């Protein structure tokens, strides 16, 4: 399935990726920001163990690349997370 998202341009979304996003959405839809924050910290710890240094750093580079697409509220939340992760 090909999608176009403004500044991101065209890219292909695979069915398994859509299913994963839907699963994450349903898992977190009733959680507070603080609960999601704790989940992100736990996920970060797992990624740091499972990924190579280059793969792990690439995730943070991608976050920097999408900053201009985020609202002020989203930027504040991202900055809070990054501060807690020591980034």
Mean pLDDT: 83
Gap between N and C termini:
34 Å
Q: What count of domains describes the coordinates?
A: 2
Q: Which class best fits the helix and strand makeup?
A: mainly alpha
Rg: 14 Å
Helix count, DSSP H or I runs of 4 or more residues? 4
| Main sheet properties | 2 strands, antiparallel
Provide the β-strand percentage band: 5-15%
In N-to-C order, the SSE pattern is EEHHHH
- For the biggest β-sheet, the strand order reads 1-2
Helix content: 55-70%
Total DSSP E strands: 2
What is the approximate shape?
globular
Point out poorly predicted stretches. none
Secondary-structure blueprint of this entry?
Elements: E1 2-4, E2 10-12, H1 15-28, H2 33-50, H3 53-66, H4 72-84
Antiparallel strand pairs: 1-2
Question: Main attributes?
Answer:
87 residues; mainly alpha; two-stranded antiparallel sheet; 4 helices; 2 strands; 7% strand
What is shown here, in short?
With 87 residues, the protein is mainly α. It is 68% helix and 7% strand.
How would you describe this protein?
This protein is mainly alpha-helical and 87 residues long. The chain has 2 domains: 30 residues; 57 residues. The chain is 68% helix and 7% strand. The protein has a two-stranded antiparallel ribbon. The protein starts with a strand and ends with a helix. The model has no long low-confidence stretch (mean pLDDT 83).
């Amino acid at each position: 399935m090909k999608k176009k998202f403004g500044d991101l341009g065209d890219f292909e979304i695979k069915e398994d990726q859509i299913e994963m996003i839907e699963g994450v959405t349903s898992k977190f839809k009733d959680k507070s920001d603080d609960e999601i924050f704790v989940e992100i910290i736990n996920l970060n710890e797992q990624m740091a163990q499972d990924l190579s240094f280059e793969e792990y750093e690439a995730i943070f580079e991608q976050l920097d690349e999408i900053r201009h697409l985020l609202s002020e509220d989203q930027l504040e939340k991202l900055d809070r997370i990054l501060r807690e992760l020591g980034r």
